[in-house]
Design goal:
The structure is a homodimer. Chain A is of the alpha+beta class. Helix content of chain A is 58%, strand content 15%. Chain A is built from four helices and two strands. The structure holds a DNA duplex.
DNA sequence: TGTAATACATCATATCACGAAGTATAGGCG
DNA sequence: CGCCTATACTTCGTGATATGATGTATTACA
């Protein structure tokens, strides 16, 4: 996947990964892997950005003697996903613009 | 349209704008406007980048006593559009990942 | 003791969209 | 002529951001 194309999708993808239940860094990367691969440094940058934007909240909890940070989506985060669904219509229009055949005979 | 989301689409959009016939800066911006708005500085940056990547060639021609730069798509440029069509499948998968409802009952 | 997996964090770097500003021509209006 | 707008291309500085490299620390396994 083209890196530029990823940029607009990463934030919503991370939000989607914690939408149904709270999750943590390592698991988010694994869950997203089939769709988008991202490095740890990238993910934690994104998580911090989303936290600052109040699209998620963080809670530290112990798991197996080790501390984990669990991320929980907020209303604003859910709202961001809804916005993406709206943006999707524009993306579809762009896709059609890019793929339309005008030189052939259609 | 979210600026991050634009990033991956701008290049292919510009290529699509010159696909059917050679075009020039100002016209490209107008043709793309219904789909994606971009500033002149952005467009010329992209055109230069695409030229360096040999996805288009440039030809200077006079028009109404003024010089215009006409951009012509190359095989590599057409190839880039084809690649985008392949990437589109991944984007669709991401869209489904983001929009799937797991908390409801599906 | 050593290796790998888990888990999070910081820093430097490269890419890139964009506003601001500049250069230059053509045409309309008074 | 002077002024404005549209056309047409260019350069510069800035801010956003994905990522590799690197570091810290624990658990599990051989």
């Amino acid at each position: 996947m083209d890196i530029q194309l990823k940029r607009g999708l990463l934030d919503v993808c991370v939000l989607a990964a914690i939408k149904s239940e709270d999750s943590y860094g390592y698991k988010i990367i694994k869950d997203m892997k089939p769709y988008i691969e991202l490095s740890e440094s990238t993910l934690y940058t994104i998580l911090k950005r989303l936290e600052m934007a109040k699209m998620l909240t963080v809670r530290t909890a112990e798991h197996g003697g080790r501390l984990r940070k669990y991320y929980h989506i907020t209303e604003a985060g859910l709202q961001r996903i809804e916005e993406f669904k709206e943006e999707w219509k524009e993306i579809l229009a762009i896709y059609q613009f890019v793929t339309k055949e005008d030189g052939e005979h259609g």
